[in-house]
Write a structure and sequence with these properties.
The structure is a single chain. The chain has twelve helices and four strands, in the order αβαβαβααβααααααα. It has two domains: 103 residues, Beta Polymerase, domain 2; 119 residues, Four Helix Bundle (Hemerythrin (Met), subunit A) (Up-down Bundle), CATH 1.20.120. It has 237 residues and is of the alpha+beta class. A four-stranded mixed β-sheet has the order 3-2-1-4.
Length: 237
Amino acid sequence: MNPKLESVLNETVAALKAGLGDNLYSCCLYGSAVRGNAIDGVSDLNLLIVLNQSDSAAHQAVAGALEGRPQIDPFVLGRRGFERSARAFAPKFASIRRNHRVLHGADPLANLKVDEALERFLCEQALRNLRLRLVYAFITRHQQKAYDRFVVRNVTAIFVQVSEVLRLHGTAIPTDFAARIPIFEQEFKVDGQILRDLLALRREPRRFSDPQAIAEHARLFPVVDVVLQWIEQHWGA
């Protein structure tokens, strides 16, 4: 990570400690900054912030600590119910557990265990939700004018969630997103070029004309849909 981002992290953790005191149980960096594929000026710095007591006063303290730091994307939870939250968001926590760095306090993920059947269920649920939102964003693009923004915002989610399907099937997944594409092509028989184009779009976001939106959706939707078909065939009811 470059020194500028390290400085932002150090300042943020110091501000959280000052604002929360002993109420800050843990603060962990996760996501692309830990995986090593963060894009300067594009990728957020994802922080898992665990509070001893999660209440409105603590939330205001977190908001104050993060003010003026738009690159910080917080995921705030309390210690009470933390394991239940981890089960409810099992795929997300499984991903965080594999790629996280403790910045302050204890490691809240050190002893985390999630049932594989539950992980599969929630992984499929997340993909089905992504497919629903993708279709909605496309169909309402004339009213919302947000299809291109939806696609850009969900590039990481697409790669992470598709990767989770294969990981839960026992396939080794490389850290780099681009290195995952040949595996997706082989396992799901998808168009890898649309995935490469998505990574380029994440690096340099752009607006779509309506013909471009129609063309991109015709390439992207089948990728998400075929992964769900694969799940239906391999995971059973």
